[in-house]
UniProtKB/TrEMBL annotation:
Protein name (database record): ClpP class periplasmic serine protease
Gene3D superfamilies named in the record: 2-enoyl-CoA Hydratase, Chain A, domain 1 (3.90.226.10)
Highest rank taxon of the organism: Bacteria
Signal peptide bounds: none
Database matches in Pfam families: SDH_protease
Region called Disordered, residue ranges: 272-296
């Protein structure tokens, strides 16, 4: 009994539909294997908190990912299952997220008795920075950044709401803005109190000097820069944060297993090999010099 064209079509359709599932299972297996190898190297509990900004969509519209209650539940469980004498390595790639979820994770980290190390391969903004402050050591790529942790009320920075009330005559400020300003003051005080708790926790381990605590709080929580301001390795070190530069290559390998979903043509391309004088070059057609591009 042979197969007809119709049978081949359905077989092709079945294989095509199963391919994404197979690829997903393969990458999940590679992630688990990479995690296991890194844990064995470090003799620690490794936890990943990675938020790709276009990892999900609704009707074709990208939705942002951020630290959620579900994240805090999973991380708290991982910390709870970690013996007190086993170090924790947290790999962070996140724009931030809910204050409640972030504070829950941070409190669990500072309560852990063994060393907590946070690795930042690219960025850990807002709530991600708060989690970094809960660690004993922050290990960053030379080009990675942290961010301010000043609270936001809706779409507005709390510090800016307060400034509006301070700059305008009280008679010209509506009741809703006054209420928002009151909430903004409380939000800033709460964040400052919590950041102070995180920084003081590391004093016995001599990671943050006591004289630097208030200046760090001032720089991170008062809204003197915009909420998306990138705090570089140099600036974070100058503040007095416990920064170490240089990530293990295995962390970059892990990040490769969490790629941005591809939509259309890729926006970045390069040949993945060491770039030096001995690297093989692409052939240049005779009679045509290799031209440098005019745009940056």
């Amino acid at each position: 009994m042979g197969f007809g064209i119709g049978d081949l079509f359905w077989i092709f359709l079945l294989l095509t539909s199963l391919q994404p599932l197979w690829q997903k299972r393969q990458i999940e297996y590679r992630r688990l294997r990479a995690l296991q190898e890194f844990q064995q190297q470090r003799k620690s509990r490794v936890i990943l908190l990675i938020h790709r900004q276009e990892s999900i969509s609704l009707l074709g519209i990208p939705l942002s990912r951020y630290i959620t209650i579900e994240d805090s539940e999973q991380i708290l469980r991982a910390i709870r299952l970690t013996p007190p004498d086993v170090p924790i390595d947290l790999i962070l790639h996140t724009p931030g997220g809910l204050v409640l979820a972030t504070e829950q994770i941070a409190r669990a980290l500072i309560r852990h008795q063994a060393k907590v190390t946070v690795f930042v391969p690219h960025y850990a903004m807002s709530g991600g920075t708060m989690l970094a402050l809960a660690s004993d050591e922050i290990v960053m790529d030379a080009n990675a950044v942290l961010g301010p942790v000043d609270p936001q009320l809706g779409n507005f920075p709390a510090a800016s709401i307060i400034k509006v009330v301070e700059d305008k005559p009280i008679s010209e400020v509506d009741d809703q803005t006054l209420i928002m300003a009151d909430l903004a003051r409380k939000a800033i005080q709460q964040v400052q109190r919590f950041v102070r708790t995180l920084l003081k926790d590391s004093i016995p381990k001599q990671k943050v000097q006591p004289e630097n605590i208030e200046s760090i709080i001032e720089a991170l929580t008062t809204g003197r820069v915009t909420h998306d301001y990138p705090i570089t390795v140099e600036e974070a070190t100058e503040m007095g944060l416990p920064i170490t530069v240089g990530l293990p290559n295995s962390i970059y390998d892990l990040m490769d297993l969490y790629p941005q979903p591809q939509g259309g043509r890729p926006t970045v391309q390069y040949i993945p090999m060491p770039y030096n004088d001995r690297s093989p070059s692409l052939p240049v057609p005779k009679g045509r010099p290799l031209e440098e591009p005019n745009n940056l």
